Amino acid sequence: MDTTNTVPQGAIRVLVAKLGLDGHDRGAKVVARVLRDAGMEVIYTGLYKTPDQVVSAAIEEDVDVIGVSLLSGSHVPLFRELCKCLRDKGADHIFVVAGGVIPERDYESLMESGVDVIVPQEARAELIVSSIAGLIAARGNR
Predict the structure, then answer these.
(1) How many CB atoms within 10 Å of residue 134?
(2) Nearest to 70 by CA among 15, 16, 124, 108
(3) H/E run at residue 51
């Protein structure tokens, strides 16, 4: 896993992940860079992870947020399983941010499964950063 060594104390910790068979990680790497540039600590899991692997890594790394970018079209079942794993492992305090190619018709289903924020594929860096910072601020942790 790739971690940043120069992180301000109290920085928001974000695990960026790719679930399932989606092998396109350029967007996830760009998002990871944007978050690092905004002062967040970012851990990138790499490609082809299962929801259980992502949740285990998030718990081990003690992150505030899991950000998942999906382009494969299997976002509904993968996010459903990811959020179920978080609940099953007692880690549903970790926020889930969904990004990538996600049709608006699926937003409600994702939110019902436990996704906290959906960031559209065309989102600018400022929206990505403010969405994550807003989650943390609303909880009052930072």
Answers:
(1) 12
(2) 16
(3) helix 51-61
CA nearest to 22, candidates 101, 81, 96: 101
Q: Is 113 helix (H, G, I), strand (E, B) or coil?
A: helix
C-alpha–C-alpha distance, residues 16 and 2, integer Å: 10
pLDDT tens track of the chain, all 142 residues?
Answer: 443 333 345 799 999 999 999 888 999 999 999 999 999 999 999 999 999 999 999 999 999 999 999 988 899 999 999 999 999 999 999 999 999 999 999 999 999 999 999 999 999 999 999 999 999 999 885 4
- Cα 135 to Cα 37, 39, 48, 64, distances in angstroms: 18, 16, 27, 9
CA angle 60, 65, 71 (to 5 degrees): 105
Q: Which residues contact 116 (CB under 8 A, 6 or more apart)?
A: 95, 96, 97, 135
Q: What is the pTM of this model?
A: 0.91
